[in-house]
Design a protein that fits this description.
The complex is a heterodimer. By secondary structure, chain A is an alpha/beta fold. Chain A has 2 domains: 4-231, 3-Layer(aba) Sandwich (Rossmann fold), CATH 3.40.50.300; 241-270, no CATH class. Helices cover 31% and strands 26% of the residues of chain A. Chain A has helices at 46-53, 76-82, 98-103, 118-130, 146-159, 176-191, 204-210, 228-231, 234-241; strands spanning 4-13, 23-31, 35-39, 61-66, 69-70, 83-86, 164-168, 196-200, 213-218, 221-226, 245-250, 253-258. In chain A, the strands form 3 sheets. Chain A has a 6-stranded mixed sheet, with helices on both faces. In chain A, helix 5 packs parallel to helix 6. The longest helix of chain A is centred in the last third of the chain and has 16 residues, at 176-191. The relative contact order of chain A is 0.16. Chain B is mainly α. Chain B has a single domain (2-258), classed as ABC transporter involved in vitamin B12 uptake, BtuC (Orthogonal Bundle). Helix content of chain B is 78%, strand content 0%. Chain B has helices at 2-12, 24-37, 42-67, 74-98, 101-111, 120-139, 141-147, 151-156, 161-183, 189-201, 205-229, 238-258. Chain B is globular, with a radius of gyration of 18 Å. The relative contact order of chain B is 0.17. The chains are: A alpha/beta, B mainly alpha. Chains A and B meet through helix 2 and strand 6 of A and helix 7 and helix 8 of B.
Chain lengths: 270, 259
């Protein structure tokens, strides 16, 4: 694995007018070629943590380091060349074409009025290919299915040629096949192409099958951080999600099955 | 006006935004009429007062829209625009009622929109106010593309969103003020023209901004000719012609957008 690209050291954040830390003392690092999953229940601070990672929010205490420099010392344009983000919600109002959308990922590399250079075109082309969206590069984004749109957004982030890719709930509202496709794509980008990856997700079972490390966050605090095997224990899952679970190993990876609340203690084997 | 409309649509992420509907034109009108009524001297003071009026109007509209929630809901924003426009209209009504009859007719005619006052000197005043904002909007075409995605995605793609928004407020106000000061309130140009361009040439601002500039100028010239000749020797204000075309166009857009 490569160099550390993102680093949080004892990071705290409190929203103005709230008397509780949304993120309370999180330490974490992400290396190139490493995929880190961030999971936790609703309102656990996942999205706040992500905003801190990309420098949209400034930590109240502790430090965020991006590519060896404190995040505040980069301007947004420089950050956009290091970190590619696929945000959770995005409702396009103006229907650009797929290729135009992916081209937006080159803007952090381009001068204000300069024409696209060969490197820009090449990066767009390779992002389109890598995410398998070449076939509909000329279509308007308003005509895409949920799975296609998600791949286009990953392609846009890829066109930024980032050192680390951050995805916020990339599989929300996708069916099983498209969920798997998105995770396999991200995993391949990280493990094959060697960029760093951070995935914030509700899908714990899905995430543990692809990530190298998993951060479990609850109430803004780190409940567990480690390999899927270290983190995916009945004890941790039940404490964090406040629900009885059964742990099963599939493909050599622990998976959990939430039990019906009436069955507590008598887990059936599936 | 058309260029301002294109920029405002990106700023508020709403294809129905334009300087008229967002209250900028009304604000500029109040500023300009106030300057005339108070006899603040010269051709330079009117656009300056219009600029202040437009800036106050867009500031008010934006604040009003923010009251309703954390983010700016586009529907609330348009509603705020309507409210601020109505408020501006009330102020104008008060000014007209309190001024003498001769002044009143002149101001009314001017406010309905027209190029009767056109002269090389007026063009000079207009250029002095509008050149820099127009150049800025062309220069900033890529950040405008990003801002159309939403504020957070725009940040992730390298835009300093807060700075861009501040500059767009000022730029849009300057352009609206320059237009209103020389030709009164000509509605719907800022709405219809960018849309026509979007339909034919797409949504990237590198093309949209200059094309809206050219098409806006061309169509207004046509509208002006129509206004002068349709009922000759009587003349219609250009603003009436653009509204007659613009309102049905707005209805069509509203229907498409609501789907």
């Amino acid at each position: 694995m490569g160099e550390v690209i993102l680093e949080l050291a004892g990071v705290r954040y409190r929203y103005p007018g709230v008397d509780r830390d949304a993120v309370g003392g999180v330490t974490l690092h992400v290396r190139e070629g490493e995929l880190v999953g961030i999971v936790g229940p609703n309102g656990s601070g996942k999205t706040t943590l992500l905003r801190l990672l990309v420098g949209v929010l400034r930590a109240s205490a502790g430090g965020v380091t991006v590519a060896g420099k404190p995040v505040g010392e980069w301007n947004r344009r420089e950050l956009a060349r290091i970190i590619g983000v696929v945000p959770q919600r995005e409702e396009p109002v103006f229907p650009l074409t797929v290729e135009e959308t992916v081209f937006l990922g080159r803007y952090p590399h381009m001068g204000a009025l300069a024409a696209p250079r060969r490197a820009d075109r090449a990066a767009v082309q390779s992002a389109l290919e890598r995410c398998d969206v070449v076939a509909f590069a000329d279509r308007r984004i308003s005509t895409l299915s949920g799975g296609e749109w998600q791949r286009v957004r990953v392609a846009r982030a890829l066109a930024q040629e980032p050192k680390v890719l951050i995805l916020d709930e990339p599989t929300a509202n996708l069916d099983i096949r498209h969920e798997m496709e998105v995770f396999e794509l991200v995993s391949d980008l990280v493990h094959h192409d060697g960029i760093g990856g951070v995935v914030v997700t509700h899908h714990v079972n899905l995430a543990v099958r692809f990530v190298d490390k998993m951060l479990v966050i609850n109430g803004g605090r780190v409940e567990a951080f480690g390999t899927p095997r270290e983190v995916m224990t009945r004890e941790v899952m039940e404490r964090v999600f406040q629900w009885p679970v059964h742990i099963e190993t599939i493909d050599g990876v622990p998976q959990f099955v939430p039990l019906k609340s009436t069955q507590t203690g008598s887990a059936e084997n599936e | 006006m058309a260029v301002t409309g294109a920029a405002l649509q990106a700023l508020v992420r709403n294809p129905l935004a334009d300087p008229y509907l967002l209250g900028l034109s009304g604000g500029a009108g109040v500023g300009a009429v106030l300057a005339i009524a108070l006899r603040l001297g010269g051709p330079w003071a009117v656009p300056a007062a219009a600029f202040v009026g437009a800036l106050v109007a867009i500031g008010l509209v934006y604040r009003l829209a923010l009251v309703a929630g954390a983010g700016v809901d586009p529907r609330v924003l348009l509603l705020a625009g309507v409210v601020v426009s109505a408020f501006g209209g009330a102020i104008l009504g008060a000014i007209f009622s309190l001024s003498s009859a001769a002044e009143l007719r002149n101001s009314m005619m001017w406010l309905l929109g027209g190029f009767d006052a056109a002269s090389w000197r007026v063009l000079g005043v207009f250029m002095a106010y509008a050149t820099l904002p127009l150049a800025y909007l062309y220069y900033t075409n890529r950040p405008l593309d990003l801002l159309s995605l939403g504020e957070e995605p725009a940040q992730f793609l390298g835009t300093d969103v807060e700075r861009l928004k501040r500059r767009l407020f000022v730029t849009a106000s300057l352009l609206t003020a320059a237009c209103v000061a020389v030709s009164g309130i000509i509605g719907f140009v800022g709405l219809v023209i960018p849309h026509a361009v979007r339909m034919v040439l797409g949504h990237t601002h590198r093309v949209l901004v200059p094309a809206a500039f050219l098409l806006g100028g061309t169509l207004l010239t046509v509208a002006d000719v129509a206004a002068r000749t349709a009922f000759a020797p009587r003349q219609l204000p250009v603003g009436v012609v653009t509204a007659l075309v613009g309102v049905p166009a707005f209805a069509l857009l509203l229907r498409r957008w609501a789907k």
